[in-house]
Design goal:
Elements: H1 4-10, H2 13-28, E1 42-45, E2 48-50, E3 59-63, E4 66-70, H3 78-87, E5 95-99, H4 105-108, H5 111-118, E6 121-125, H6 126-133, E7 156-158, E8 163-166, E9 169-175, E10 184-192, E11 195-201, H7 222-235, E12 240-242, H8 251-259, H9 270-294
Parallel strand pairs: 4-5, 5-6, 6-7, 11-12
Antiparallel strand pairs: 1-2, 2-3, 3-4, 8-9, 9-10, 10-11
Bound molecules: zinc ion.
Length: 296
């Protein structure tokens, strides 16, 4: 009986080519798992805790009636979230509500798994819900994703200005489209020593790779969306500045200062918050201007 390698030689060339093509398509269809690194879980301010990985923020907001989780990271982030929640002395089962900033895999791919673990209700904006319920297959203006994730059922649609209350905490949703169609900014108040502070979980305001903001057929109103979003963001009170990726709000540096015993909580950073919005807007306007001149 011939061995496998000599069997290849007996196949007609067209079949061999077919097999090789099938092999390479299959290889392309399984992108590598994201490289997720842990970050120490810690109390940010008041009843807000960081339980994400080193790049993808996940926030636990605790209340007397259970907890809210903002974002879930990748599916690979979930064990880090679970370990963090438990290390801080809380229980995953007490997570009652899951909300999100925007429907990209690095922020919501872990939703299905956490919902399964906790039975939490998932809330999302209408346009991001389509993406989350299809695991990235529908509703993303960049097209269906090459690395789809586990779809999650959205239990409640969040509208612009809607308030979500659990126990003593109320979070307000502000629709800030651009980075995704349903991109959402969340605000709340937190108690810290000297009184109540306005917290803003700022959204991603960057452009996506390969996406034009001028004459972009997949999403013709994208420039208007970004412009509206910058207008909204400039009106939001932001004393405590947080965001979906650690490097957006200097998680590492501020955490280190906190650990070193900083007198004032380093996450109280209204200047950093304002600059984040200004930088985002400047980058957007520059790209829009360049595209206006070069694209028809
Ligand atoms: Zn994103």
């Amino acid at each position: 009986m011939p061995n496998r390698s000599t069997q290849w030689l007996r196949l007609p060339p067209i079949v061999c080519l077919g097999l090789l093509l099938t092999r390479s398509v299959f290889a392309q269809g399984t992108p590598p798992a994201p490289d997720v690194k842990p970050f120490p879980p810690f109390k940010v301010i008041g009843n807000i805790y960081y339980v994400g990985d080193a790049n993808e923020s996940v926030f636990l907001i605790t209340t007397r009636a259970g907890h809210v989780l903002l974002d879930s990271g990748y599916e690979e982030t979930v064990p880090i979230v679970k370990a963090g929640v438990e290390k801080l002395g809380f229980k995953m089962q007490d997570i009652k509500i899951m909300i999100s900033g925007h429907a990209h895999s690095d922020h919501v791919a872990g939703h299905a798994l956490i919902k399964q673990m906790t039975g939490a209700r998932v809330l999302a904006s209408e346009l991001d819900a389509v993406v989350m319920e299809s695991g990235g297959a529908r509703g993303d203006y960049r097209g269906p994703r090459a690395n789809p994730w586990k779809p999650v059922k959205v239990d409640q649609i969040i509208r612009d200005g809607e308030k979500v209350t659990l126990g003593e905490v109320t979070l307000t949703a502000h629709l800030t489209p651009g980075h995704t169609r349903g991109n959402t900014t969340w605000t709340m108040e937190a108690n810290e020593g000297r009184g109540r502070l306005n917290v803003a979980f700022m959204p991603s305001v960057g452009r996506n790779e390969g996406v034009h903001v001028f004459n972009y057929p997949n999403h013709p109103t994208i420039a208007d969306d970004y412009q509206k979003t910058f207008r909204v963001l400039k009106t939001l009170p932001c004393q405590v500045f947080l965001g979906p990726h650690g490097n957006f709000f200097d998680l590492e540096g501020k955490y280190a200062r906190m650990q070193a015993g900083a007198k004032e909580n380093p996450f109280i950073d209204p200047t950093g918050c304002r600059q984040y919005v200004e930088r985002g807007e400047a980058g957007f306007l520059k790209q829009l201007d360049e595209e206006r001149r070069t694209r028809r």
